[in-house]
Amino acid sequence: MVAPEVTDTRFSLSQAEIPSAWFNVAPHLSSPLDPPLHPATREPVGPDDLAPLFAAELIGQEMSADPWIDIPGEVLDVLRLWRPTPLVRARRLEAALGTTARIYFKDESVSPAGSHKPNSAVPQAFYNAREGIKRLTTETGAGQWGTALSFASAQYDLECAVYMVRKSFEQKPYRKVIMETWGGSVVPSPIDDPSNAGSLGSAISDAVRDAMGREDTHYALGSVLNHVLLHQTIIGLEAQQQLALAGETRPDVVIAPCGGGSNLGGLALPFLPDPAVRLLAAEPASCPTLTQGTYEYDFGDVQGLTPMMNMYTLGHDFMPPGIHAGGLRYHGDSPIISKLVHEGRMEAVAHRQKAVFEANVLFARVEGKLPAPEAGHGIASAIAEANDATAKNEERVILFNYCGHGLLDLAAYQDHLAGDLGEEP
Amino acid sequence: MVAPEVTDTRFSLSQAEIPSAWFNVAPHLSSPLDPPLHPATREPVGPDDLAPLFAAELIGQEMSADPWIDIPGEVLDVLRLWRPTPLVRARRLEAALGTTARIYFKDESVSPAGSHKPNSAVPQAFYNAREGIKRLTTETGAGQWGTALSFASAQYDLECAVYMVRKSFEQKPYRKVIMETWGGSVVPSPIDDPSNAGSLGSAISDAVRDAMGREDTHYALGSVLNHVLLHQTIIGLEAQQQLALAGETRPDVVIAPCGGGSNLGGLALPFLPDPAVRLLAAEPASCPTLTQGTYEYDFGDVQGLTPMMNMYTLGHDFMPPGIHAGGLRYHGDSPIISKLVHEGRMEAVAHRQKAVFEANVLFARVEGKLPAPEAGHGIASAIAEANDATAKNEERVILFNYCGHGLLDLAAYQDHLAGDLGEEP
After folding, report:
1. What is the Cα–Cα distance from B49 to B53, expressed in whole angstroms?
2. What ipTM was predicted for this assembly?
3. Would you tell me which of A366, B4, B211, B270 could form a disulfide with B8, CB atoms 3.0–4.6 Å apart?
4. How many CB pairs under 8 A join A and B?
């Protein structure tokens, strides 16, 4: 095997180089996270409060202060189906922009589900199966998380029930088919109001209520929580090895789309200890949690079934417009991400839908990859950073997360090409 | 960079290891191919007869006896966006089958178009652009080739007009969207008969007539011709390097789906000089060109506009049932593939649609990749070979071409899961 040259555009690791432990950001925060509060008593929740919903191992990870947490071999065996994922230098995008910057992206679209989501779905399914659980429930927005959990459940012989945000369920009928191909079952949410377009917050309510009603069933969340971001850090850990192969000391700025925070946290958190690395969250202007929300305790779901968390929120009853980036339509945000933004360690920017699709079409034409609407928020930010670097004649090293492909989002491209994205922000 | 271990499941080459020349099978055939005949005079065609349709460089490759043909740097620059593609050992499929065989597949689904097709679309667009052509026309069945040529045309600033088999056009509306995202234009074929489901043969007629009518326009064919198979040999050349990384001396059998023959030829032809390697074509039972056709001169299209070629054919007016594997609905076959089958050097087998989808769902569940209907023909054959090896307690090394993903074919999976594939063979 020949080592890559720095003139290459794709930097691959062998399977022997896949990280064997996740990076826990907890010891690197300025102070411990504020505790989640019980939705009724508003007292800090302990492991027993979470046990009806989550595997004990996941609850332990949620509260762990250990700097590294080993990845079980049975999890690595499945992750190796697509990991390590490539790090790509977007030289053709650089040329199209005429930029002085160097642009890299981590390609998480190569997973079975087409996004970063299986990185957490696989360990969540594994730990639940090992603890005797037979069935998982979850919510899904764009469909990426439900697809990932359906795939992961099939690997460990679990049933999987997916509550899908109704707006996405109707926009993306084929998402249901792919989930069913992996053995999942899919219903639109909210289940009790067919006229309601739904949101991640309402779908979480449905999934949590289902799991609370059955002994053999747990709930799985695809973002927001500490253990989800933990599982996603495999992205950033691989990227660090690959940037070294590319001859880079560090990125100047690390960018990712942000809905609940999992793909952003996954790429960015391993870079947190280096103060020279800027961290940037890219969110939709129509659901501007980090850029226009308030930092306070709020529920994770619409109906107030989940613990309250200290985070940026638009209010747990906020109903975002039905933009195509369904995975970013969430009123709140990861407490870890929220704390970093609140303390000024992480920046945030919001993009309008039309600008996101213009970035996506440019990216597809020059790099040959058709991005998910969510991924376009990262691309739009990367392009803005590159243009800024060019204006200042800087050799800025930009790293963004290409968190998913758009092959199941072609109806959105159809609307965009027809000039029919509407007037939403 | 750490070299792969033979216990790995994915064998990747660095970009520095991408082949720099295509493998020309001509010197390795038992005798020269029979010449194509002019459709009117039935005399052998020369370069001048083909010049209205094809770039001079491609005509030269079509008739070349050179053992190797260099890949231009401008072509490699684009191929490197996704090549080299991975070779994967399907260990989880092996476990599910409980087989004594070792199963490998070459993953061509990672290309921009999601199939092997860009391997030829890119050089065809490049040579035409270099010779001053401004516009390409083509046909597409499942949509894979039209998608590939739209992408490739965008890389060299060519216009691209795609005539899409009407049955596929109606089954797969999002194929049109992805082609348009890359700047292609798409119309259903036959253009003069909206009640006709169409076939590759009829779409070729439409595309050839368009190209013959304009000075600035050439035609591009996605399979069948010698130069197309030549461009695809990059698949088999990479696979040879990767099998060595996996610790294999040679495959015992090389398998690929066969419609016109391009993905089969691409994987199999570099193995032809080794008589210990069996070569196997997998075709649909509803369009059984190699298993039930006759070996004789026939037209490549329905209307008799193309040169006649000596090949297996079901008759140029054969109209196959509207199966989901639209890319395999072709009445004829590559003259190279046909000659190898006729002489007994290559075997052929036909699969029914239902069996193909059962193989695809198994593959998706254990390997995490959702196959195109076309790709399932190779998977079904690989499973049959593995089961045969197990019955004989043989350590057979099986290599098949995973020629494309099925993410734009979910309507077919929907029909399959609903038990609604119909009674076609």
Report:
1. 9
2. 0.94
3. B4
4. 135
